[in-house]
Amino acid sequence: MTRLDGRRSYDGPVQLQTEPDLPAGAEVVRLSAVGRAGRLVAAAVVLALLLVGTVWGDDSAFPFGPFRMYATRADPNAPVISTQVVGLTGAGAEVRLSGGEVGLRRAEFEGQLPRLEADPELLGLLAGSYAQRHPSAPDLVSVQVVQRHFELRNGTQTGAFTDTVLVAYDLGGSS
Question: What whole-number percentage of the chain has pLDDT above 90?
């Protein structure tokens, strides 16, 4: 802020406060030999867990195992897999049900894939949720979990892809 005389508010001298008198610090307490040994053992156990987890662990061992998403590099020529849920209308049109359309985010949904593969009727719940959120949308006749494999060459999409239906559930004409 500039004052009327042209000086800025931060141009003036800064008044430093003197440090208040501090009480004398307590005497340093040294660890006993047993205390030092206990801390060394605890540190050795943690380091051993980290080493074992790094060499043989996977995502489920995190934080003692690597989080593979960040600890590994993807092959630039391997396909990239995208999982999506689609509903099919009576006219054959695809309706995207993933991406929050049914109240689940992608990561939440992908975490439930083993459950959906074991019990495909759960896809009917997704169709019901979609119908509640979009009452004017056409009725769905089936729901599918589709994995799309995008082909890469040197880390760049080639434009080619293949779809694999992991789970399908026929709604029987009701949604």
Answer: 22
